[in-house]
Design brief:
The complex is a heterodimer of chains A (246) and B (294).
Chain A (H helix, E strand, L loop, with lengths): L1 H7 L6 E4 L3 H11 L6 E4 L3 E2 L21 E2 L2 H9 L6 E4 L3 E2 L5 E2 L2 E3 L4 E4 L6 H7 L2 E5 L20 E2 L2 E2 L10 E5 L3 E5 L5 E6 L5 H6 L7 E7 L5 H11 L9
Parallel strand pairs in A: 1-2, 1-5, 5-10, 10-13, 15-16
Antiparallel strand pairs in A: 3-4, 6-7, 8-9, 11-12, 13-14, 14-15
Helix pairs in contact in A: 1-2, 2-6
Chain B lengths: L1 H7 L5 E4 L8 H9 L5 E4 L4 H9 L3 E6 L11 H7 L7 E4 L2 H12 L4 E4 L7 H4 L4 E4 L6 E6 L5 E9 L5 E2 L7 H7 L2 E9 L2 H5 L5 E3 L6 E4 L17 H12 L1 H13 L4 H6 L4 H5 L14
Parallel strand pairs in B: 1-2, 1-8, 2-3, 3-4, 8-10, 10-12
Antiparallel strand pairs in B: 5-7, 6-7, 8-9, 9-11
Helix pairs in contact in B: 2-3, 3-4, 5-7, 9-10
């Protein structure tokens, strides 16, 4: 469901910075269905990748074979991302807060962390420079706290300062795609509930979020994946259920 | 390999073994562990399994990095134990990928720092005070800066080089070129040693020129369990297995005893790996050449 919802956000011909896991599934689903001309760029340097197998990592050799261009990472970050050429970026994380900020660095205190996470990777600059970002995370009050323990990737408002004031070029997280619903930022940059998956009630979504989640006046229902999407995901893109489980 | 590491990697050095998923020189890392180098500052974008092994083996005093996970799998547990205060201490200095790339760019260009539009609103400059800002002298815009990184030694794995170290790489090239030019000494480790005529036949493919290379080591399958495009695929089963090996200090020590301390060199290590060729040897997808005539 999350992969399908994310795939629908991608328009044909767009330039997408792809992460591994669900974002990768979403991009390849979009490419196989409504967006055959999607340009997939991986931070490892593969541009216009057409992976023949589901890449197990962001630097998989299948991303190179048949791609349009392979460049160094200095080019990826400077000439594609900082240049403003990336239209859509995907982000995920251990924590996503009320303002769409993301933490992939530490749970707890930085100097003495409870859990040490991998860190930024390219997420910090994707969050800054992609024209818009899509965040994918499963609802859980520990995952959606009022405020992240460590701000790795900027959302709409960072420690009280709005995104624009900070000079961040991209629009930030336009949608947060969860396993039960879609959240979007309101005018102040606060994430609010805008659409529910079939059979989900707003209270269930509120229970998965660590702040008093507000609901947009016109609450939409998200259409389930159609037969073509499901067949593509289950039979072609992820037949071994690497990413579709859960 | 023994001689190259003995000559060029010293206790206390800043060591870079680069390669973004692709062409990570595990053979060199293992030799450094065998020679029991100590107090190294290890720098890489993604520490990967190789630095987790070197941290576990006690080689590292400090780690400079931007993403410390097991790619596509989960955690690096020796790293986590150290940082979470459950193991021998490890100093860390952390950036984002762009920040690390920029450090190598500055180092390779012999500039003191590199400017980038990054880090606004984030906690990274607080965590790492070496991430600073500068006012652009033309527009007065505030830009982030990172300091140059000039390693004592950089080790680059590649598909092929000639005896002078003119090195050709294809597939993902990561920051190999920048790291090599930034470094005081460069060791190139290759799948195949080729005649200079092979290099001259396709000069656009040369990423690192021999003039910056101190030593060339021929070590087939030297990147395993990482991969070499056109030679062998990543041993993903081993990356998955590392999760349970590295989680348990005893298991990790036993793994090092058998596969690193217990073998004299790479050739012996390879005999301990089951069905490597059958499982991982790359199929052929050869690119036709181009016309270099004039």
């Amino acid at each position: 469901m999350m992969a399908t919802v994310a795939a629908r956000e991608l328009r044909d011909g767009e330039v997408v910075f792809v992460g591994i896991g669900l974002p990768n599934l979403a991009c390849n689903l979009a490419r196989a269905t409504h967006a055959p001309n999607l340009v997939l760029i991986y931070e490892s340097g593969a541009v216009g990748a057409v992976p023949e197998r589901l890449p197990v990592s962001i630097g998989d050799p299948a991303l190179v074979t048949g791609s349009l261009m392979v460049c160094g990472m200095a080019d990826v970050f400077q000439y594609f991302l900082q240049n403003g050429r990336i239209e859509v970026g995907f982000l995920g994380g251990a924590q996503v807060d009320r303002w769409g900020n993301i933490n992939t660095t530490v749970i707890g205190n930085y100097a003495h962390p409870k859990v040490r996470l991998p860190g930024s990777g390219g997420a910090t600059e994707i969050a800054a420079h992609a024209q818009r970002t899509l965040v994918m995370a499963k609802l859980d009050p520990r995952v959606f706290p009022e405020q992240v323990d460590f701000l790795t990737s900027p959302g709409h408002r960072c420690r009280g300062r709005p995104r624009r004031e900070l000079g961040l070029p991209g629009a930030g997280p336009v949608k947060v795609i969860t396993d039960k619903a879609i959240l979007e930022a309101d005018d102040t940059g606060e994430l609010v509930l805008v659409a529910l998956y079939p059979g989900v009630r707003a209270e269930q979504v509120r229970a998965g979020v660590g702040w008093p989640l507000r609901v947009r006046t016109t609450l939409l229902e998200v259409a389930p994946p159609d037969a073509r999407d499901l067949a593509q995901l289950r039979d072609v893109l992820d037949p071994h259920n690497l990413y579709l489980k859960g | 390999m023994h001689d190259a590491i003995a000559a060029h990697v010293h206790d206390g050095d800043t060591v870079v073994i680069e390669g973004f998923t692709h062409l990570i020189c595990f053979a060199a890392g293992h030799e450094i562990i065998r020679q029991r180098r100590r107090n190294l500052t290890l720098a890489r974008l993604t520490p990967d399994l190789i630095y987790d092994q070197m941290i576990a083996a006690g080689c590292a005093r400090k780690l400079i990095f931007s993403w410390a996970g097991n790619p596509g799998v989960g955690s690096l547990h020796a790293f986590r134990r150290a940082v979470e205060g459950k193991g021998p201490p490890l100093e860390i200095e952390e950036y984002s990928h762009f920040g690390m790339v920029a450090r190598f760019l500055a180092g390779a260009a012999r500039l003191p720092f590199w400017p980038l539009r990054d880090y606004a609103g984030t906690d990274l400059p607080t965590a790492n005070p070496l991430i600073r800002t500068v006012a652009c002298p033309y527009t007065q815009e505030q830009l982030a800066t990172v300091p140059a990184l000039n390693p004592d030694v950089t080790i680059v794995h590649a598909q092929r080089a000639d005896a002078m170290g003119n090195t050709q790489i294809w597939g993902l090239v990561g920051v190999q070129k920048e790291a090599a030019f930034a470094s005081t000494r460069v060791i190139v480790v290759v799948e195949e040693l080729v005649d200079t005529a092979v290099i001259r036949a396709d000069p656009n493919r040369t990423l690192i020129p021999g003039i910056v290379v101190a030593a060339v080591v021929v070590e087939p399958w030297g990147a395993h369990p990482s991969y070499a495009q056109g030679y062998y695929d990543r041993d993903n089963a081993f990356y998955v297995a590392w999760e349970s090996i590295s989680r348990d200090e005893g298991k990790l020590a036993a793994w090092l005893d058998r596969f690193v301390y217990g073998v004299p060199d790479r050739a012996e290590y390879l005999t301990q790996q089951d069905g490597l060729t059958d499982r991982l040897k790359a199929h052929a997808q050869v690119s036709p050449g181009v016309n270099y005539g004039f």
